[in-house]
Amino acid sequence: MNNTEVVRGRILLVDDEASVRTAYGRWLTNAGFHVAEASGGYEALGLLENNVFDLVLSDMLMPEIDGLTLLRRVRARVPEMLVVLMLDSPNNRVAIQAKALGAVESLVKPLDAQQLEEMATFAVQLHRSQKNPIARFRNRRGDQLEAASYTATDAKNEFGRVLEMVIQGGAVVITKHDAPKAVLISVDEFNALSHASEKKLNSLTNEFDGLLAQMQTPHARAAMRSAFEASPHQLGEAAVAAARKRG
Predict the structure, then answer these.
(1) 38: closest CA among 59, 62, 13, 17?
(2) Mean pLDDT across the chain, nearest whole number?
(3) How many CB atoms lie within 10 A of CB 166?
(4) How many structural domains is the chain composed of?
(5) Helix (H) / strand (E) containing 37
(6) Is the CB of residue 94 less than 8 Å from the CB of residue 103?
(7) What's the CATH number where 188 sits?
(8) What sign does the CA torsion over 195, 135, 157, 176 have?
(9) Range of the domain at 167
(10) Alpha helices (H) along the chain
(11) Per residue in 69-83, is it b (16+ CB within 10 Å) or e — as a string?
(12) Are the C-beta atoms of residues 147 and 171 closer than 8 Å to each other?
C-alpha cells in the first residue's frame, strides 16, 4: 500500500503458522488495512503495549498460549479492544466461551479474502463508533451525518482529501491514540452550530414570555397586589384559611 492511501483500520494478526500470516496479512493489506503480525500470544501482547489497533485477529490453537487465554489477557489490558478468534473446526463450546469473554466473533478457517475484508470492515467500524461518541451529528440542514475518522498522521498525509471533504460539507474527526481530539467542519456548519444555542435560547425566551402573559391576567395581578399590600395579620388569616381548605 502506498503512502497516499487512507488506512481503513489497524489489525493485529496473530497466528503461529507463517503461511496463514502471509496470506491473510496480504489480503487485508490489499483491502486497505494496516496489518501487524505476531507469531504467538506473548509477541501479540508486547505489540499491544506500544501500538494502537482496532482489532486483534487471533488463531485459537497456538503453542504458547491459546486464543482464549490471549483474549482474556487482551481484554484485561485493553477492555475496549475488539477480538475475533479463528478456529480450525466448528466448536460451539469454544465459541460460547469466546463470546462470554468478549470476543466479537469466532470464525472457522480457512477464510477467503472477501470474508476477511467484510469481517475487518465491520469490526473496525464497530470499534471506532464505540470509541468516538461524536462520530455522528446533524448538519445545518438537519441531515444525519457520519464523520470520517483519521489519525493525526493520516490527516497530515491526506490533507488535500481531508480539506475537500470538509469543503463539501462533511466532517472529519482527528484521533490520537484512538481517541477523538478534534473535529474539522466547514464555516457554514460552524456558523449553523454556533447559532443553534442562540435559536434554542430565543425559543425558550418566547415560551417563557408566553407563560408569563398567561399568568399575568387582571385577576392574577389584583391577587398579587393584594398579597403585597396585606398586613401580617391578614396574611396569617389567609394562611390558616388555605390550610383548612386543604384539610
Answers:
(1) 13
(2) 75
(3) 18
(4) 2
(5) strand 34-38
(6) no
(7) 3.40.1620.10
(8) positive
(9) 134-215
(10) 18-30, 41-50, 67-77, 92-100, 113-131, 152-157, 159-167, 187-215, 218-229, 232-246
(11) ebbbbbbeebeebbb
(12) yes
**Among 111, 143, 102, residue whose Cα is nearest residue 21:** 111
**Torsions phi, psi for 184 (to 5 deg):** -105, 125
The rounded distance, in Å, linking the Cα atoms of 167 and 149 is 16
**What residue type is assigned to position 144 of the chain?**
Q
Instruction: With beta carbons less than 8 A apart as the criterion, state whether 161 and 3 touch.
Output: no
Q: Give CA–CA dist 182/179, Å, rounded.
A: 10
Q: Does one domain contain both 125 and 189?
A: no
Instruction: Report the alpha-carbon distance of residue 46 to residue 38 in Å, rounded.
Output: 9
Confidence of residue 207 (pLDDT cuts 50, 70, 90): low
**Whether 59 contacts 36, CB under 8 Å:** no
d(CA 116, CA 101): 22
Return the DSSP state at 6. Answer: P
Rounded to an integer, the average pLDDT of 31-40 is: 93
Q: Is residue 242 part of a domain?
A: no
- Only one residue has cell 389567609, namely 238
- Strand order of the β-sheet with 172-176 is 148-151, 172-176, 179-184
Handedness of CA 211, 212, 218, 219 (dihedral sign): positive
Q: Any idea which residue has 493525526 for its cell?
A: 152
3-state secondary structure of 145: strand
Q: Is residue 166 domain-shared with residue 99, that is, in the same domain?
A: no
Q: Which three cell numbers stand for residue 245?
A: 381548605
At 57-110, the pLDDT tens digits run 999 999 889 999 999 999 888 888 899 999 999 999 999 999 999 898 899 999
Backbone φ and ψ of 218, nearest 5°:
-55, -40
